Amino acid sequence: MTYNHHSTVAVLGSGKIGLAFVKQILQKTSYRVYATGRRSETLKAAESLGALALRDNNLAVRESGIVVIAVKPFHFPQLLSEVEPESWKGKIVVSLMAGVKLDTLRAAIPGARVFRAMPNLNSYVGFSSTAVAENGYDDTSRTVEEFLKIFGKVYWVPEEYLDIWTGLAGSGPAFIAEIIDAMAMGAVAAGMPRELSYEAVLDVLEGTARLLRSRLYQHPGQLRDDVTTPAGTTIKGLMVLESGGVKAVLMKMVEEASRRSREIGEEINLKILEKIRQR
Ligand SMILES: NC(=O)C1=CN([C@@H]2O[C@H](COP(=O)(O)OP(=O)(O)OC[C@H]3O[C@@H](n4cnc5c(N)ncnc54)[C@H](OP(=O)(O)O)[C@@H]3O)[C@@H](O)[C@H]2O)C=CC1
Ligand SMILES: O=C(O)[C@@H]1CCC=N1
Q1: Which range of residues forms the domain containing residue 55?
Q2: Do residues 70 and 12 touch, judged by C-beta distance below 8 A?
Q3: Do the domain assignments include residue 269?
Q4: In whole angstroms, what is the distance from residue 262 CA to residue 223 CA?
Q5: What is the pTM assigned to this prediction?
Q6: Where is NADPH bound in this sequence (predicted)?
């Protein structure tokens, strides 16, 4: 296969989200993929998907046109020390790290065109809801948009929304998974087998998302009211939900996750500035 730098992607950090990216890229495109990691298990997992797995972040960056940063935010300073500043020059860099701001990324990797994106683990099946921020709309942004569409839907947002997006859509699959589990357990408590209960909740979730996206409803409250028969079953369940303060808890859950994303950004920014001073 012939290739040039622009048809090669480096995924730095082949963990949970990194591997989801590797899987989709290799399944849907003809990009060559370099995937890095530290442990042999990590490299083996990437290799088994068809990536060129390697420990050398510098080589992966040098050989690629698009570089995805998928390490944990607190591993970023170490990653930086492993890549020569020259290697980043002219690259399109897409950071998936929670919290780490564009200014911090630009200061850390000058000479690259940097984008900050927040996908979610639904990328694994091509159903991510990904927000991306960077100033300007040009050919490079369009390349990044096309690239991110491999993993699902793409939304351009001002950077100020990215921490909130992280708390809502980035962490979202974990929150929804907990709600699904709780509802299935409720059915088990009422006497139905776990597997059947679980399938039913997944069906309800998928169907409700479709119904809410249809033109029938402008607001979820309208669907709630249509389901709720006076003195029926739903209103009794809703009363329990309200008495438990569940709606307020869910609101606080997203708000707190968003706050933590901002906090991570501040912590990493300080570490990066320290690192830059040492250069
Ligand atoms: N998980 C999720 O749902 C989402 C995560 N994110 C963001 O993606 C990033 C990764 O998260 P996640 O995938 O969950 O984390 P994981 O811990 O699963 O993956 C991180 C990977 O980075 C690798 N790594 C760490 N340091 C280096 C290094 N110096 N060189 C090469 N590889 C390295 C680790 O390899 P090894 O294990 O071999 O040490 C590990 O496989 C985070 O910044 C997170 O904020 C964004 C959206 C969703
Ligand atoms: O929990 C986290 O910090 C990361 C960011 C979004 C999903 N997982």
Answers
A1: 5-158
A2: yes
A3: no
A4: 34
A5: 0.96
A6: 57
